[in-house]
Amino acid sequence: MGAGANTVSSLSAVAYTPLVGRAETLEPTDGPLTVEELQLATRNRGIPLEALQYDITPTGLHYLLVHFDIPVIDAADWRLRIGGRVHTPVELTLDQIRALPSRTVPVTLECAGNGRARLAPRPLSQPWLVEAVGTAQWTGTPLAALLERAELADDAVEIVFSGADRGVQGDVEHDYARSLTVADAMRPEVLLAYEMNGRPLEPQHGFPLRLIVPGWYGMTSVKWLTSIEAIASPFEGFQQVDAYRYKSDADDVGEPVQRIRVRALMTPPGIPDFFSRRRIVDRGHVQLRGRAWSGEGPVTRVEVGVDGEWADAVLDAPVGEFAWCAWSFDWQAAPGEHELACRATDGAGNVQPAEQPWNYQGMGNNLLQRVPVTAR
Ligand SMILES: Nc1nc2c(c(=O)[nH]1)N[C@H]1C(S)=C(S)[C@@H](COP(=O)(O)O)O[C@H]1N2
Ligand SMILES: [Mo]
Questions:
Q1: Ligand 2 mean position to 286 CA, how many Å?
Q2: Which residues contact 43 (CB under 8 A, 6 or more apart)?
Q3: Verdict on whether the full-model pTM lies above 0.90
Q4: What are the phi and psi torsion angles at 330 (to 5°)?
Q5: pLDDT in tens, 145-194
Q6: Fewer beta carbons under 10 A from the terminal one: N or C of the chain?
Q7: Alpha-carbon gap, residue 29 to 73, rounded angstroms
Q8: Helices assigned H by DSSP within the chain
Q9: Which of 43, 47, 56, 65 is the pocket-test mutation for ligand 1 (most atoms within 8 Å of CB)?
Q10: Neighbours of 25 (CB within 10 A)
């Protein structure tokens, strides 16, 4: 103890150079990945693509996106407050919410920034490639019944959902918050969820309660929910009017990001090369499989590309009305180098683009997927 303590106190006299006042730029870049992007990429996580094999993604394999810090919440102290432009404010404990009528629904969530890291120039944020997606069984109580109990005032136009997490983004300090119009909030599929895959929510997925808005990109499904407030004019919070917009540049007001655009992904065939993740398959028959989903109607078609030729895949029934479906395709692999691809079409007629239109924050990127494969 004595010798160690001496060493520490003598070290405290040694000077070092503090790194203060570093300028932060958030302009899209053509440069290499930055330490800040790597820092976000290691905090958040994507689905390992081989987990596309599961109808329901095991919780530990589901993607994760957290803007600020994961709050530590004691359920005994926690309350949900419903107020603002309502006639009957409501305050509920977790036990009271768990005692309400419940539903369990499989929902595919995807981050609106999925695909961002492939854009050039690359918007600086969480650098997703394609893996920001997952499907869980969410259990909770329908929001609409609670809004009815609170009795919205006639002038209520939007409902604001706030989380317990606070931070600074775009120079604005705020609790993470998003809104829905009253009509969207009243949709029967919108849930206040307290379980994911049959277990209480894990801290990182929103314990003790989160919103689940099926069909919408993930930012709408506010985690660590503490307050639901009815307001008489459109919400102007940062995550509503600045982030999550399709913008052409920093000053563009842009269009709101809302429903999930159609996308198909392939379960990586064969075996990977460790570092590049390039796929290696045995020549001959290879069954290709994957998932497809859209927030704008059911998936109606998945096509698989083999070296530039498209052919239709076989579609399974979706896992749920708001969840992905499986697809499969039989491929005869000739020895050599190949490029496989997949793209989906939804009931609204949307099809994934071969060239991705660029936007300033890298939102709603649903470029078709290309998968290089070596057959041996
Ligand atoms: N309170 C709060 N809710 C949040 C977020 C957040 O940072 N804070 N991230 C949102 C975003 S951008 C996404 S994509 C989803 C991710 O949900 P998951 O981590 O459970 O997959 O949560 C959303 N809800
Ligand atoms: Mo997200």
A1: 34
A2: 66
A3: yes
A4: -90, 125
A5: 999 999 999 999 999 999 999 999 999 999 999 999 999 999 999 999 99
A6: N
A7: 37
A8: 2-11, 35-43, 94-98, 143-150, 182-185, 238-241
A9: 65
A10: 8
Distance CA 366, CA 362 (A): 10
Identity at 125, one-letter amino acid code: S
Question: Which domains does the chain carry?
Answer: 55-110+133-256 (3.90.420.10), 263-375 (2.60.40.650)
Q: What is the pLDDT of residue 3?
A: 45
The DSSP output letter for 117 is G
Q: pLDDT of 103-112, one tens digit each?
A: 999 999 999 9
What CA–CA distance (Å, rounded) separates 68 from 123? Answer: 19
Amino acid of residue 325: C
Read off the tokens for 373: 């494969």
- Burial 258-283, CB ≥16 within 10 A → b, else e: bbbbbbbbbbbbeeeeeeeebbebee
Q: 20 Cβ partners below 8 Å, 6+ apart? A: none
Residue whose Cα lies nearest atom 11 of ligand 1: it is 219
CB of 178 shorter than 6 A to ligand 1: no
Q: In this structure, what token pair is assigned to residue 58?
A: 């095991």
Summarised one tens digit per residue, pLDDT across range 199-239 is 999 999 999 999 999 999 999 999 999 999 999 999 999 99
**Which among 238, 220, 135, 225 is positioned nearest to 184, based on CA atoms?**
220
Could you say which residues of the chain have pLDDT below 70?
A: 1-12, 19-25
pLDDT of residue 16: 79
Q: What pLDDT score does 9 carry?
A: 53
C-alpha of residue 161 to centroid of ligand 1, in Å: 12
DSSP assignment of 227-275 equals EEEEESS----HHHHTSSEE-SSTT---EE--BPPPEEEEPPPSEE-TT
- Identify whether the C-beta of residue 254 lies closer than 8 Å to the C-beta of residue 242: no
Q: 253 with 240: CB under 8 angstroms? A: no
